[in-house]
Automatic annotation (TrEMBL):
CDD domains: PBP2_CrgA_like. It comes from the Bacteria. Belongs to the LysR transcriptional regulatory family. The lineage of its organism: Bacteria, Pseudomonadati, Pseudomonadota, Gammaproteobacteria, Oceanospirillales. Residues 1-59 form the HTH lysR-type domain. Pfam families: HTH_1, LysR_substrate. InterPro entries: LysR-type_TF_proteobact-type, LysR_HTH_N, LysR_subst-bd, WH-like_DNA-bd_sf, WH_DNA-bd_sf. One of its GO terms (molecular function) is sequence-specific DNA binding. GO terms for biological process: DNA-templated transcription. It comes from Marinobacterium mangrovicola. Keywords: DNA-binding, Transcription, Transcription regulation. This is LysR family transcriptional regulator.
């Protein structure tokens, strides 16, 4: 534990700007602080602070070490909390960033049920559809279907969201025939903004890519679904969004021999948090919730949502 104590002392000196102030914060005398810093400097092989009779200044080596020490100590504290739990129950706080449509459709119910099962967990949710690093927002788990990479952040695949190409009978009655994905270049399309105007389809010979023209672009699938039902054009929609229209006959599937590629949802997690028990448990819970959506109405009372 001497190294942990020395690292905590290093953080205190860096935060308070002097050995005396750090000593008061740590409830020790300044000579103890000086001894601990000297031990740490010997261990790392670099001077961490420049001393003068009146001030101390953190060195470049100290500046490089500081964020790593801060993150490591936070992780160590979390491990201690886990070790103190003797009843196997999860506890702690989770800050989640979730896509708006998916959360309103299903994840909000799943999260409430997770909290019902784990009564020591507290949760804060943020609904957002923009691309942002979870480190910038101090988020434990960010769920997104966007293709992205962030430094210091791990990607955990959750589940695909099954999608289909669809239109309304009204649109199809007046539009040119659609027998192949390449025919879409002659049609008006409604696109999901994060996916762009290039649509990908599966075929026996491999993926097919088609560049389409957007009459409507939106990051809200409900808006696209309404546009399809009103005959504005063709869209690629998640099945859980299109389901009511399919059942009512206001939306019909197209090109079922050339299905669009599914959209994968991933959990983006700061690396220092990915092994926390509550984070792992929430990721698994969210994975099951998204898979339930893919079941197209299958009832799973664990999430408090049955059709």
């Amino acid at each position: 534990m001497d190294m942990i104590t020395n690292l905590r002392t290093f953080l205190a000196v860096a935060s308070h700007g002097s050995f005396a102030s750090a000593a008061r914060h740590l409830h020790v005398v300044p000579s103890v602080v000086a001894k601990r810093i000297a031990q740490l400097e010997k261990s790392v092989g670099s001077r961490l602070f420049e001393r003068s009779t009146r001030t101390i200044t953190i060195t470049d080596a100290g500046q490089r070490l500081l964020p790593r020490v801060r993150h490591s100590l936070m992780e160590f504290e979390e491990l201690l909390k886990d070790a103190r739990r003797d009843d196997g129950k999860l506890e702690g706080h989770l800050r989640l960033m979730l896509p708006t449509t998916l959360s309103m459709a299903h994840l909000s119910n799943a999260i409430v049920e997770f909290m019902k099962v784990h009564d020591r967990i507290t949760v804060e949710t943020v609904l957002a559809d923009r691309s942002v690093s979870p480190l910038e927002e101090d988020v434990d788990i960010m769920v997104s279907g966007r293709l992205a990479h962030y430094d210091g952040v791990s990607q955990v695949p959750l589940a695909p969201t099954n999608v289909l190409l669809c239109a309304s009978p009204e649109y199809l009655a007046k539009a040119p025939p659609i027998n192949h994905p390449s025919d879409l270049v002659d049609h008006t399309c409604l696109i999901f903004s994060p996916q762009g105007t290039t649509w990908a389809f599966e075929s026996e010979r491999g993926p097919l890519y088609v560049d389409v023209q957007a009459r409507l672009a939106s990051d809200d699938n409900h808006t696209l679904s309404r546009g399809v039902e009103r005959g504005l054009g063709i869209s690629v929609l998640p099945r859980y969004i299109a389901r009511k229209g399919l059942d009512a006959g206001t939306i019909v599937p197209l090109l079922e021999h050339f299905p669009p590629q599914d959209r994968w949802y991933k959990a983006y997690i700061p690396r220092r948090k990915e092994r926390l028990a509550r984070v792992e448990a929430m990721c698994e819970w969210l994975r099951l919730a998204i898979e339930q959506l893919n079941a197209q109405g299958a009832c799973n009372p664990i999430f408090g949502h049955c059709d």
